[in-house]
């Protein structure tokens, strides 16, 4: 619930990034990632593919991101993006949220 109440948010074309720093939660890990992909994105195969792509994109940026707990959400428009475009939007959403 801390993500919802005190989390910092950023958006970029169908991608939403919300995060709180590790110090705010008292956790010792570097990153914790949760993904939210709704049914309006498509069938289970499409949603799972998008989750894998989001996880991969976040993993590529993890060394540049502040330690914390993250929630990446994706809307229907994100499923239509190529990986390079998706990665750019994840990066932009994290920047707008202040995590980079």
Compile the SSE list and pairings.
Layout: H1 2-6, E1 8-12, E2 15-21, H2 22-25, E3 31-37, H3 44-61, E4 68-74, H4 76-79, H5 83-97
Parallel strand pairs: 3-4
Antiparallel strand pairs: 1-2, 2-4
Helix pairs in contact: 3-5
Low-confidence stretches: none
Shape: globular
Separate helix tally: 5
Radius of gyration: 13 Å
Describe this structure in words.
This protein is an alpha+beta fold. It has helices at residues 2-6, 22-25, 44-61, 76-79, 83-97, and strands spanning 8-12, 15-21, 31-37, 68-74. Strands 1-2-4-3 form a 4-stranded mixed sheet. Helix 3 links the parallel strand 3 and strand 4 (68-74). The chain is globular. The chain starts with a helix and ends with a helix. The model has no long low-confidence stretch (mean pLDDT 90).
């Amino acid at each position: 619930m801390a993500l919802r109440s005190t989390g910092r948010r950023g958006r970029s074309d169908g991608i939403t990034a919300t995060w709180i720093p590790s110090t705010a939660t008292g956790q010792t890990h570097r990153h914790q990632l949760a993904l939210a992909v709704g049914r309006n994105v498509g069938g289970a195969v499409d949603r799972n593919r998008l989750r894998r792509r989001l996880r991969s994109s976040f993993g590529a940026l993890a060394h540049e991101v502040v330690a914390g707990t993250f929630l990446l959400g994706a809307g229907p428009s994100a499923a239509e993006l190529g990986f390079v475009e998706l990665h750019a939007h994840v990066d932009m959403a994290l920047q707008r949220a202040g995590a980079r």
